[in-house]
Amino acid sequence: MMIAQEYLIAKQKTLINNQLSQKLNSGKYKLNEFAVIAHNISFWVMSFQDLLRINLSQVTDKEYYQLVRQHLMEDVGHEKWFLDDLELMNLEQPNLQVLYSKPHADVRDATFSLMSEVFRATYDYERIIIILTLESAGHVFFESVANFVDKHNYNHKFKYFSNHHLGIEKKHELFEDKIQLYLNNIQLNHEEMNNISNMIDRMYKAFELMFDGLAIAMS
């Protein structure tokens, strides 16, 4: 299963060059323009906890379950950081009419696509790869966001959009190291490995859709 980790690294490198990261790292945009994407990502942030919860509920192996549960518990409450950051940017929490409006469509579509993978997964190792894929894409987003916020001297105020959150995410690397030990003992045939690669491709396609939509909103 080491090949799955290598594939994730390769996919992550492609996402680093996306338009959203380029805009955040360009130095051309101000906080009020960033606030638009912060607001538009609401649907994903608030759905993320459900994705993790449902994924955990379908894990059958006891050892896997404990590791996945630990990961979920480390992410509990991050949506509250997000809502606090919106308030700091003088943004109202989006209501249902806003969440289901056209400007939020790309994030909704990406969220539904990512959520669908939880229900498509048949084996525990697939559920683990779902988490690792979420983490790998998340690192790209939070690296760019934390750098942007730091350049504008707001890092000390924000929690979700900051180095504070990025540091928490990087602590998940310990989880990733532990889970990799389990995955290394799993032998997959060619068809099963193709299924994993296809799942990762679908998830990264969803993140590309999400990031492209956010980049357009930031224009």
Automatic annotation (TrEMBL):
* Gene3D superfamilies cross-referenced by the UniProt entry: Heme oxygenase-like
Entries under InterPro entries matching the protein: Haem_Oase-like_multi-hlx
Q: What is this protein called?
A: Heme oxygenase
The organism's taxonomic lineage, starting at the top: Bacteria, Bacillati, Cyanobacteriota, Cyanophyceae, Nostocales
